[in-house]
NAD-dependent protein deacylase
Amino acid sequence: MDKIVILTGAGISAESGLGTFRDEGGLWARHRIEDVATPEGFARNPALVHEFYNARRVQAAQARPNAAHEALSRLERDYGGEVLIVTQNVDGLHEAAGSRNVLHMHGILSGALCAACDHRWPAPDHMAPGQQCPVCGAPAGRPDIVWFGEMPYYMDRIWDELRSADVFAAIGTSGNVYPAAAFVQDADRAGAHTVELNLEPSAVVSDFAETHFGPATRIVPDWVDTLLRRLGM
Ligand SMILES: [Zn+2]
């Protein structure tokens, strides 16, 4: 059976109402990235950073998965082979749609992380400076989010998965953020068929063998239908 690895980015959650730091308006527009999405920003003003992620956590909890998330969940359910989603998104919309095989390479809003001992636990709705770790007791709780300047999670596993992928698809990613922007080259070198699905061509579109452009809620279900037919499902 073919192994399908899918990278998803902000573009798949945009139609569920979750903005990105590139959008005009919304939560990100009122803050500078270096203030709310870097370890240095957190060290300078933890209260501001916690407030920012508390607001994003509420927003993400209210969002609902859309037809694109649901199509990927259907792919995992109806296809007999392996389907892995590697997501840059920190919302839980893939899981809410029913996907089970999901790696959050940039962390997740619903998680808290102890900066002292690396213990992870479900984030309370409201986090504040001095949040105590339930295991080591250090007042070092922070959002379980990979900030700019930090190493994304699961990288060794992701490179392994890309090297053994038969199909690699990137959905709703800008192609501007590394290392994710280089995944297509690794998958291509390993012999995978590569597909970009995006609202507009990404910065690395020329690296893909197959491309589809349009709203994720239209092009992702179409692609999943075609793929399942081709695989004889
Ligand atoms: Zn701890």
About this structure: The chain has two domains: 1-16+65-106+152-233, 19-62+111-145. The two ends are 12 Å apart (CA to CA). The chain has ten helices and nine strands. Residues 114, 116-117, 119, 133, 135-136, 138 surround zinc ion (CB under 6 Å).
